[in-house]
Amino acid sequence: MSVYTNTGAVVSPANELMEKFKDRTARVGVVGLGYVGLPFAVEKAKVGFRVLGFDRSGDRVDRVNAGDNYIGDVRDQELRDVVLRKGLLAATGDWDRLPEMDVIVICVPTPLTRNLTPDLQYIQAVTAELAKRLRPGQLVSLESTTYPGTTEEVMKPMLEASGLEEGRDFYLAFSPERVDPGNKRYSTRNTNKVVGAADGVSREVALAFYRQTILHVVPVSSSRAAEMVKVFENTFRAVNIALVNELAMLCDRMGMDVWEVLDAAGTKPFGILSFYPGPGVGGHCIPLDPHYLEWKAREFNFNTRFIALAGEINRRMPEFVLEKAMRLLSDRGLGLRGAKVLVLGVAYKKDVEDARESPGAEILHLLALRGAAVSYHDPLVPRFQEYGHDLASVPLTAGVLADADLVLILTDHSAVDYAFVVKHARLLLDTRFATRGVPCDRNRVVLL
Questions:
Q1: I need a labelling partner for 211 at 20 to 30 A (CA). Which of 143, 181, 200, 243 fits?
Q2: What is the pLDDT of residues 324-374, one digit of tens each?
Q3: How far is C-alpha 323 from the chain's CA centre?
């Protein structure tokens, strides 16, 4: 339906919505107030949009409405400012408020099943709730990482079951999140934003929306292309991490220092990117996203062997760390059973509080299964509950370090004094080269 102005000019619903973006009168709904959704909501509110966050967690809703921050990439004062002072951001668990929104941005988890196949239950549940309440003139944008085709093959039919037509009555796009937790340089605002949609009209509407707060928006031809961009980005990282992890295992076998090799290779001014090994891959992207592409490829009778092999290598790393720990103890006449092992860092990444999919969880579990007495210290993860274990972070004291038969660095948080650790640990296995620059006896401080 077209809208006629007082001058007789015809304004399409798409143009009317885009005008609301320009004058900030559009109401923005953000579904999922986690590490992607809350920073996005705050950025939109900061420039004057009225934002309503939707989350099934009553605790998150209450904390947002109180201006109580729980995401590291959001500044406490900025959240309080847009919630308490300006009144531009609020949160709710009431789906019936969806029709009030002009834009609904979906930022929900996309995990894997036990069989490493895509689990779209959260996307489908939100889409079903939205379909019941969808009204003409709304833009729906999915930001959750998923396989190419999800937006058009899963979401579009569900939304059109409402009787409304995509591209005419409502607009549908995919714009993948590119959040890098803990990154102090790149935020939601200054990270290039890829936008694709099911048709040209939806793409133009989505581009107009994202350009209000993102410095550089990158249009692609379709939502499928945008979905492929995201899974490729994370697959690229997974494959290269697997390469250096395999090199680390080979260098260990050959008695070489993999860190020396990688540092020297990184001095080449062209044709190389620096990646480093570790105890495994973790977080919300690298361990999961390549499997989305691997699964989708089977629909086209295509076997992504390279991607599958990278996943296999990365999943092997916790076992390799365990094996190396056992060798180090054995060289000193100790067995793993009964040994006191202090793990430093269970977060999946340096300087973040997120322990999702952390390789530390599996390593800690493997150590405990083999009879080790395991404790951990992580300044950002005060309590750790995985694999049936329920542990609290212990203080990092000279006594705690000296009492351990083995100290195992799994996450290289900046807040930890590694010179202090090296001074007091009797035996140290450093899987992240956190002790770089610290004078060490490499017979006592061993690198991955």
A1: 181
A2: 999 999 999 999 999 999 999 999 999 988 888 899 999 999 999 999 999
A3: 29
Alpha carbon distances (Å) from 164 to 101, 169, 206:
16, 6, 18
Taking the CA atoms of the chain, what radius of gyration do you get in angstroms? 25
Query: Distance between CA atoms of 223 and 167, rounded to whole angstroms?
Result: 13
Side chain identity, residue 397: T
Residues with a catalytic annotation lie at 285
> 276: which 2 tokens?
């480093």
Q: Is the CB of residue 196 less than 8 Å from the CB of residue 174?
A: yes
- Give the separation between CA 271 and CA 434, rounded to whole angstroms: 27
Three-class secondary structure of residue 246 per DSSP: helix
Which stretch of DSSP H or E encloses residue 30? Answer: strand 27-31
Q: List the domains of the chain with CATH numbers.
A: 3-227 (3.40.50.720), 236-447 (3.40.50.720)
Q: How far is 288 from 113, CA to CA, in rounded Å? A: 10
Residue 285 and residue 145: Cα distance in Å, rounded?
8
For the range 402-405, what are the long-range contacts, defined as Cβ-Cβ under 8 Å and sequence gap of 24 or more?
402/426, 403/340, 404/340, 404/341, 404/342, 404/375, 405/329, 405/334, 405/339, 405/340, 405/341
Helices 305-331, 359-369: inter-axial angle, 10-degree rounding: 40
pTM: 0.87
Cβ burial 398-415 (10 Å sphere, 16+ → b, else e): eebbeebbbbbbbbbbee
**Residue 52 scores a pLDDT above 80:** yes
